[in-house]
Amino acid sequence: MSPVVFIQKIFRDEAGRLVAQLAGQEKPVVDVRVARCFPWSHSGKYLSILDKDEKEVILLPSLDVLDAGSRKIVEEELRDKVFYPKIKRVISCKREFGMMNITAETDRGQVTFSLQSREDVRVLSASRALFRDPDGNMYELADIEALDPASRKYLDDYL
What we know:
The chain has helices at residues 68-81, 149-155; strands at 7-12, 18-22, 29-30, 33-36, 45-50, 56-62, 87-96, 99-106, 109-115, 121-123, 129-132, 138-141. It is mainly β.
């Protein structure tokens, strides 16, 4: 059984890299990144801190385990680095090479993203879903009922 590791602090170094100082470890982990884990519906819970090789350094059960300064940095990192647009309308869906390519109007402009399978869709409620593309970007559909009929028809196979 491996020992429990706690985070002491997350900060930026002089070069602007994200650094995690773990309790009980002399050397900090430099150049980490923050990734959301499941469930996607709880954006402030279950955050993974990954090293530069994409190995998990620590899993944060909640932002509440961080001091105020570390929490602010993690929230900024998630806001600035995570592309998370909300879908307003689906413009087109085209199946190519086993992938579904969706072009949509979002709150951040027009985007085109791909889905490899139904596994890339997380239905959060009867009217809400998240789509995850192969690069890990997520797109939120807050309310399917608010979409126009053509947009709903495009997404019928996934919802």
